[in-house]
Prior knowledge:
The chain has helices spanning about 10-25, 40-45, 60-75, 95-125, 135-140, 145-165, 220-235, 245-265, 265-270, and strands spanning about 5, 25-30, 50-55, 80, 85-90, 125-130, 170-175, 190, 240-245. The mean pLDDT is about 95. The chain contains 9 helices and 9 strands. About 45% of the residues lie in helices and about 15% in strands. By secondary structure, it is an alpha/beta fold.
Amino acid sequence: xxxxxxxxxxxxxxxxxxEAVLQxxxxxxxxxRDTSKIADFADAYPDTAxxxxxxxxxxxxxxxxxxxxxxxxxxxxxLVNNAGYGYRAAVEExxxxxxxxxxxxxxxxxxxxxKAVLPGxxxxxxxxxxxxxxxxxxxxxxxxxxYAATKAALEGLSGSLQKELQPLGITVTIVEPGAFRTDFAGxxxxxxxxxxxxYADTAGKRRKENATVHGTQPGDPAKGAxxxxxxxxxxxxxxxxxLGEDALTAVxxxxxxxxxxxxxxxxxxxxxxxxxVTL
Length: 279
């Protein structure tokens, strides 16, 4: 039995993961800003579930969540940084305060959680960190530049963290989901108040009033949750786990296109070296 601490459990993938972890017989520290939305976990699993209030932008709540987890179960074996939300706007349209809040939640919140659990994991020389990103970090759709930037930042941090923690017996897995049938495109999606007509055919098509995918996404959160558990419990957890056929198709397409363009411009790339000095 291991202990999982999962952020953002009120809806979507986080809620599905908490349910799957508890059904598997593990302990779960289930967190959300509004604990009324997760109280049912503690009622259904009184011995193995702990419902904790947690706003990942509040450092005191971050520290309290980890402290309570360790006090109840003795340790945190797996941290899942899932809390986050979407934001749509053309780069020029976005309000600065909106972007700061987005980074505070999607990126710096995950950083704070990670730093809070690492002392215990380092002491035991074991543990797993799962950072939930998005295929958006790679495909960078118009209108999602700032959201993609938060996830790209999380992935860059995760890459370095993997190398720092591997010698200490701690794994780091980036999860890139495709479109899952969650509330991400509904309640969990925000957008700029400002609109600029010149972006109507690019970023404008992704604004909430033009969205048509909510409730029809191809991914099943319950299956995604089981996939995450299988990856964490494997002998060698992956550094990157894509979830969904749409993610696989989109991400491999981006990677193939990037490689082709790199090769196309390779002569110009290597032309920048110093020429040998001849006397």
